[in-house]
Amino acid sequence: MRIAALVLGGALTLGACGGTDGLEDPGITAPAAIVEGHEITVAQAQQSSREVGQVVAAQAEASGQPPQEVGPDQLISSLIQVPTLLAYGEENDIQVPSAATIEKQLDEAVPSPSETTVDFFRANAVYSQLDQKQQQEVAQQVRDLDVTISPRYRPDGESPNWLKSPSTTPEMP
After folding, report:
1. Angle (deg, nearest 10), helices 99-106 and 115-127
2. Contact at 8 Å (CB) between 68 and 12?
3. Nearest to 82 by CA among 123, 45, 51, 52
4. Across 67-153, where does the E strand assignment appear?
5. C-alpha 137: how far from chain center
6. Smallest Cα–Cα separation from 78: which of 124, 136, 47, 34?
7. Beta bridge partners of 31
8. Dihedral angle at the C-alpha atoms of 127, 130, 134, 137, nearest 10 degrees?
9. Are 150 and 79 in contact, with CB atoms under 8 Å apart?
10. CB atoms < 10 A from the CB of 168, how many?
11. pTM
12. Which of 7, 58, 149, 157 is exposed most, by the fewest CB atoms within 10 A?
């Protein structure tokens, strides 16, 4: 069965990602996002982006398209939505595939996917079953979440104030 790498609640813009994936980087344990007190670490975002990228690349190859990378900065907003979508599916009798089902579907492209990646594809399966009204309900639930995103992964591209250079030079007394 072919798995489509949907982006939850919007279009996924694919492009090259920056950063390192090395385990020696102490920043990998830092939170990329915190959703209702649950951390999505930089390492989880990086690993999941590699694995989703492998699935996207396999699909591109099968269809004769050039492969594209999926960076953690592009995936983080989707990862934030995963728990809400899985809960929504369970609460509304929407078929939520098991982790084993997703792992089997991913096996050729990603033989040992991370739990984060498996849950991403489980949530995508739920999202693909939602009608427009249900998508709006999920979107509202996501907007109501207490979410903190690391400046590195902010979807609006805005730098936090402490990274911006002053636009004017303060007057000296």
Report:
1. 100
2. no
3. 123
4. 147-149
5. 19
6. 124
7. 41
8. 0
9. no
10. 5
11. 0.75
12. 157
